[in-house]
Amino acid sequence: MKAIDDAGMREIDALYVSNMGAAPLQGQLQLGAMMADTIGMRGVAAVRVEAASASGGVAFHEGVKAVASGMCDAVLVGGVEKMSDGLPEELSSAIAMSEDQEYTAYTGVTVVGLSALLHRLYMERYGATAKEVAMFAVRGHENAVGCPHAQYPFRVSVDRVLASPMEADPTHTLECSGVGDGAAAVILVPADGIETGVEVASTAVATDSYYLEGRKDLLEFDAARKASERALNAAGVSHSEVDVLEVHDDTTITGVLSLESLGFVERGMGASYVAGGNTTRGGELPTNTFGGLKARGDPLGATGLYQICEVVMQLRREAGPCQVEGAEVGMAQSLGGVGSTCAVSVLRRA
Amino acid sequence: MKAIDDAGMREIDALYVSNMGAAPLQGQLQLGAMMADTIGMRGVAAVRVEAASASGGVAFHEGVKAVASGMCDAVLVGGVEKMSDGLPEELSSAIAMSEDQEYTAYTGVTVVGLSALLHRLYMERYGATAKEVAMFAVRGHENAVGCPHAQYPFRVSVDRVLASPMEADPTHTLECSGVGDGAAAVILVPADGIETGVEVASTAVATDSYYLEGRKDLLEFDAARKASERALNAAGVSHSEVDVLEVHDDTTITGVLSLESLGFVERGMGASYVAGGNTTRGGELPTNTFGGLKARGDPLGATGLYQICEVVMQLRREAGPCQVEGAEVGMAQSLGGVGSTCAVSVLRRA
Predict the structure, then answer these.
(1) What is the pLDDT of residues A302-315, one digit of tens each?
(2) Enclosing domain of residue A253
(3) Do A284 and A229 lie in a common domain?
(4) Are A206 and A230 in contact (CB under 8 A)?
(5) Chain B contact for A71 (CB, 8 A cutoff)
């Protein structure tokens, strides 16, 4: 309803609902029809889009296609996740469904467990320190201060991060995004005739080996590399033109590898780049400007749409204490599983 | 791979996977990336689309939008369901997730149970007999004879249907589609420059009250009515021009109500229309020409794409013993839950 009020329109042709875990967590399918009915839009075309934790970013991509097709004049893309139902182990098991059940998840490894393998390999191969990697979480919390929609809008010291329990060695609990309920929504319309606002310059989705052991290089998210290339090419935007960036930091190492795989930072340099302050609001590449998955929150199927909303807030200059000055171009990146799917969107101030 | 071989092309821009129950049944999410990897298309944009048992029809609609958007030149839409895993009660519970868990499914009612309420009301309001309604199943089985991909390609007498156990009074077991594994896929490309083949004249999706008690009239699938109107208008096709029709008969009454809600038969007359032989291959409105959900099979997330493939086979005149002579226009209709979502597609021989 906030998105509808903001857009000042109620005529919607199609509804995309992104959600990851309602079947295992709430026993609920067909969220498209359910949401249409719930928000008083009974009758509208509605569908659920799912790509694990990339669901929100991918749904945005589908919404953009719907408008571009000429078959829709106004599309609502809404993401939702209710993670607070059920026991922690049920939640862990639902999240692990983003990995192959027969060859990976059945071993009992969690998604953070897989990510932790990359974390260790990264430190070993590039000589990055635990502290440098952990700084990704610290930067997120710094940015979240003053953000009304952030789950954890307060600073956390790197010592506190490193003193928190091991979630999966070498990844500490405070290096992982938390558990939370959340929803985010956007409305997409054709850009013709619209003079001010935010324009979708491009969106792209790519996939990688579904199994970590099938990757050419464990430390490059090939789906992120491909989606970034496709989106930047389609938008005619270069890396240096991106003023705000939202990346998928469900763990610190995932955030670091995303920065590198998207092509913003040289490989092996992501952790020190972040530790050095380059991703802060006043830095070279303001990243996760409302706290990212770590501090703003990570309600799975909604996360990718939080990112889009945040980029829109930045480009509209409505980001309040989180505002990046003069932001003209923003990018959002969302990962499904440990990088099996990646959605990248580039938005521009019109 | 059959679709790819048939199309003679391997360059695909996007993959849509329709699936309903892999999370509850196999503990598996993110089937887009999984399928892309499995069929050797790692890297391609991939997403799962879900609208319960309408997933296949809705995914087709999304695939059409993707091509129409100009963002994709070739799209693979594939549906899959593996219903044979797990215990019968686990399957029933997974299927019930298409209804609202907090207000409907929690009571223990199954989807067939809800459908049975409509079945009884239909007989009471319109004076239709149990035998007339059951004839929908008999007609399906007649049509399935000789169909290589049908699950039950043999005749079943109406007496046998009515002698089968009650699944949910007054709906008999042999009035319900069975349990089966299956997959179906199509490839969509722009029609420009293609002289022969099958053209997508239109697709449409609509929704209805998510809760049966919210319906204006329990005996009209409003989503089917809306989707049919939208699709026929967009295609510029009238009801009488439809040569082959595939409807969603997960129970006999659902098939009957679909015929009526789509606008082909006057309300209250669907059962006697079918009993009278009008939907046979040589009849006025050849319907479920390979057996429908009842006899061809109903692998949930794949079912809507089976329908599309079957319409294509008819329009290409490749339906073998199931061929409807001179078929030029076909329609497929897929329902999610007890009519909460409906997808309708109109195809034309080019």
Answers:
(1) 999 999 999 999 99
(2) 109-178+195-349
(3) yes
(4) yes
(5) yes
